[in-house]
Amino acid sequence: MYRAAGAPARSASAPVVRSLRQPPPPTTGVSFMNNQKQQKPTLSGQRFKTRKRDEKERFDPTQFQDCIIQGLTETGTDLEAVAKFLDASGAKLDYRRYAETLFDILVAGGMLAPGGTLADDMMRTDVCVFAAQEDLETMQAFAQVFNKLIRRYKYLEKGFEDEVKKLLLFLKGFSESERNKLAMLTGVLLANGTLNASILNSLYNENLVKEGVSAAFAVKLFKSWINEKDINAVAASLRKVSMDNRLMELFPANKQSVEHFTKYFTEAGLKELSEYVRNQQTIGARKELQKELQEQMSRGDPFKDIILYVKEEMKKNNIPEPVVIGIVWSSVMSTVEWNKKEELVAEQAIKHLKQYSPLLAAFTTQGQSELTLLLKIQEYCYDNIHFMKAFQKIVVLFYKAEVLSEEPILKWYKDAHVAKGKSVFLEQMKKFVEWLKNAEEESESEAEEGD
To answer: The domain that contains 429 carries what CATH number?
Structure first.
């Protein structure tokens, strides 16, 4: 190797020592070669003082309870004074945080333990729903207290619904009198809109249903609800939350029948609710019948099988024949795609209906059924403008196929028709009706001559 002149020779065995110190930065210009990042300064051993407003207040429902109970004790049983006290206390006490405690006190007199029992070592008050008289008037007065409170402090609405759902799950832990009071109160609150009908889902709890608690509670609840409103308003509220078809679930599975529901609630004095549920069940059965009927027709099932199925459903669900003929007519007319041209649709309709005449004839054994079918045909031809000129042809076809008879046709023509397309259809039927009348007169005269 070459070395600089005058440099001392290095022994081969001498260790190589490298300097740990970095070379000093250049004094002029900017170095683009040094990519090392400088370390950021760090803070160690620093303490930050927490601001008082950032400190979390300890959750203490007992202290809140004591304040509410003390105030209720001072107001006594004057519910107007109770409402004023609760209104004023909302400005001082944390209702948002202690909503459950507040409602526990107003309903049961103190904080409730799981299962619905009051803790022995806690304060309690008699100014509450459970300690009040068991009558509808008193519960209406308490409902006003809750209504005013929630209108004043809107944020309590959700907490109150959650409270009622919880109370319904605790029903077994309450006495029969307490359950009755809660049921009447809930019915009034449902009627005035303070509560949503979705809270009734708690009544479908398996244990409550099994022991008959749900059904008994529902009797008192619906009585007070219907007393405030009518059955139509109650039905509308149930429909909004899709509970109009679930009322039979208040009973165990082996008792979920229209007959049992009707008997139970009619004997309890709620005939209007029984009739409503029966009607709902019938509507559901009719929809199911139409759906199955359309499927059978689309598969091309034999008419004898379809007729047998429909008659079984009629018997099982107590559906009268005039209703069934309407369902059969709708199903028959929905199984085909109709021509859009008026001059062709009549011919298509006659061909289609001639095929289904035996099926229709099976459910026009009563005069009322025939009249119902005539009205259905009239409405259909009016609602589907391409069929306006086909009305008379359809009626004549059904007369020849013995689906319809003279008397219902004449009655329809005289006074049983509806307003839809009346003038057009009566004009179409004029000659045929005259022919029917003449044929009837001839038959009567022939009968008299035979005598």
So the answer is: 1.25.40.180
Tell me if 305 is assigned to some domain. no
- Amino acid, single-letter form, for residue 435: W
**pLDDT tens digits in sequence order for the chain, 451 residues long:** 444 444 444 444 444 444 444 555 554 444 444 445 555 555 455 554 545 444 455 778 889 999 999 999 999 889 999 999 999 999 999 999 999 999 999 999 999 988 888 876 678 899 999 999 999 999 999 999 999 999 999 999 999 999 999 999 999 999 999 999 999 999 999 999 999 999 999 999 999 999 999 999 999 999 999 999 999 999 999 999 999 889 999 999 999 988 999 999 999 999 999 999 988 888 888 899 999 999 999 999 999 999 999 999 998 888 899 999 999 999 999 988 888 887 788 899 999 999 999 999 999 999 999 999 999 999 999 999 889 999 999 999 999 999 999 999 999 999 999 999 999 999 999 999 999 988 766 665 555 555 5
Which of 234, 256, 278 lies at the terminal end of a domain, its last residue?
Answer: 256
Any alpha helices (H) in 9-112, and if so which ranges? 61-75, 79-89, 99-108
205 and 337 both lie in a single domain: no
* Residue that finishes a domain, picked among 230, 256, 282: 256
Kind plus residue range of the DSSP H or E element containing 376: helix 367-383
Q: Which domain holds residue 353?
A: 320-449
For residue 64, give Cα distances in angstroms to 105, 117, 149: 11, 19, 17
Which of 13, 441, 347 minimizes the C-alpha distance to 433? 441
